[in-house]
């Protein structure tokens, strides 16, 4: 049963992710990076998120062959280092960019005045560059520290990125694993678990069907994130405790090993769900408009701002607002000139002058 799980289940999951996720993320990257103007914080983060998905998916053929071949790596140590580092590093980069999107929505919804004071596009570009630089340095250092291909069992098979000896764990893997757990798993999860409910609570104060749909979108995204990443974070914590010999039971160690593989499959399935996130969190990324996008060049968004008040829609002239450059489904925009008639509002970016529908 374990051989079936190891050798056939994971290749099937990875193949599904490759077939479904790669086209969706390539289309999303093309649209958000080259077709949508002006550039915004959301489009920058989404482009980077799609890029991390694409890198992960491009390493899957090697892992599919690895599992089908009985967990025997045949491509050599250099290929193991490159594909393994790209695979795991971009998983954490994926989580980081999802967290950036979460913080961006939180600031625009709960702290609109602070959000408008920021040059959000340039800020998002700077954050993205810093994240990629940190990840790049970590990947290069890790690759240069030594081989990642190890001897498997007595059959002569070779393992890649697993079954490390104790001295390997003590010299380099332990510190990296703890840092990845803290900054790549626990901290992003805490931010998402806090920011999303606060944003949803703020929007839910507005008794509007559109606002209620926005809340449902938030909780849908939260549910997908927790489904794909939270189990992996918890199992990874148990894995570290096992490697530190805090968990010593052999049966528990075997259960953690196989649970880690299953939760990793859930993480990979996230690459199939991310294109769905692109669709439900943007007003202009509709599949029916894809043909027009390819044929007609760049998409230019209307700068008109529509607000939802407690009772009905009202349109305010753009001159009374700063430019609210964002692509998310919902935004709170701060009004520069005090308007006593509007006490609480959520702004929705429009396409072709129509209010966004969630």
TrEMBL record:
PANTHER family for the chain: COAGULATION FACTOR II (THROMBIN) RECEPTOR-LIKE 2-RELATED (PTHR24237:SF37), G-PROTEIN COUPLED RECEPTOR (PTHR24237)
- Output the Gene Ontology cellular-component terms: membrane
How the protein sits in the membrane? Multi-pass membrane protein
Name of the protein described by the UniProt record: G-protein coupled receptors family 1 profile domain-containing protein
Instruction: List membrane-spanning regions.
Output: 12-34, 41-62, 82-103, 124-145, 173-196, 217-241
Q: Does the keyword Manganese apply?
A: no
Q: Name one GO molecular function term.
A: G protein-coupled receptor activity
* Keyword match Transmembrane: yes
Q: Which BP terms in the Gene Ontology apply to this protein?
A: adaptive immune response
Lineage, opening ranks: Eukaryota, Metazoa, Chordata, Craniata, Vertebrata
Keywords carried by this UniProt record: Adaptive immunity, Disulfide bond, G-protein coupled receptor, Immunity, Membrane, Receptor, Transducer, Transmembrane, Transmembrane helix
Which segments constitute the G-protein coupled receptors family 1 profile domain?
24-278
Please tell me the species this chain comes from: Seriola dumerili
User: Where can this protein be found?
Assistant: Membrane
Instruction: List the Pfam families hit by this protein, alphabetically.
Output: 7tm_1
Q: Which PROSITE patterns match?
A: G_PROTEIN_RECEP_F1_2
């Amino acid at each position: 049963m374990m051989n079936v799980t190891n050798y056939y289940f994971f290749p099937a999951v990875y193949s599904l992710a490759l077939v479904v996720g790669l086209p969706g993320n390539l289309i999303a990257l093309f649209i958000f990076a080259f077709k949508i103007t002006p550039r915004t914080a959301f489009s920058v983060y989404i482009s980077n998120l799609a890029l991390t998905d694409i890198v992960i998916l491009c390493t899957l053929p090697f892992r599919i062959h690895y599992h089908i071949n009985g967990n025997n790596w045949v491509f050599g140590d250099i290929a193991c280092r490159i594909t393994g580092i790209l695979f795991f590093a971009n998983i954490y980069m994926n989580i980081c960019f999802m967290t950036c999107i979460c913080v961006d929505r939180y600031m625009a919804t709960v702290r609109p005045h602070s959000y408008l004071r920021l040059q959000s596009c340039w800020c998002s570009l700077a954050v993205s560059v810093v994240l990629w630089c940190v990840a790049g340095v970590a990947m290069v250092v890790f690759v240069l520290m030594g081989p990642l291909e190890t001897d498997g069992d007595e059959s002569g098979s070779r393992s890649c990125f697993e079954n490390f000896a104790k001295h390997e764990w003590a010299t380099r893997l332990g510190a990296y694993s703890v840092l990845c757990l803290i900054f790549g798993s626990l901290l992003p999860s805490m931010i998402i678990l806090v920011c999303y409910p606060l944003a949803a609570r703020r929007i839910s104060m507005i008794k509007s069907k559109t606002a209620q749909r926005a809340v449902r979108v938030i909780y849908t995204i939260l549910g997908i994130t927790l489904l794909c990443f939270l189990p992996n974070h918890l199992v990874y914590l148990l894995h570290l405790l096992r490697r530190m010999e805090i968990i010593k039971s052999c049966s528990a160690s075997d259960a953690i090993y196989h649970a880690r593989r299953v939760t990793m499959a859930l993480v990979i399935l996230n690459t199939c769900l991310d294109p769905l996130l692109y669709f439900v969190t943007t007003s202009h990324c509709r599949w029916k408009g894809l043909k027009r996008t390819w044929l007609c060049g760049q998409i230019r968004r209307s700068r008109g701002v529509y607000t939802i008040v407690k009772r009905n829609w009202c349109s305010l002239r753009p001159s009374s607002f700063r430019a609210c450059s964002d692509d998310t489904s919902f935004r709170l925009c701060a009004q520069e000139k005090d308007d006593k008639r509007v006490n609480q509002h959520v702004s929705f970016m429009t396409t072709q002058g129509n209010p966004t529908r969630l």
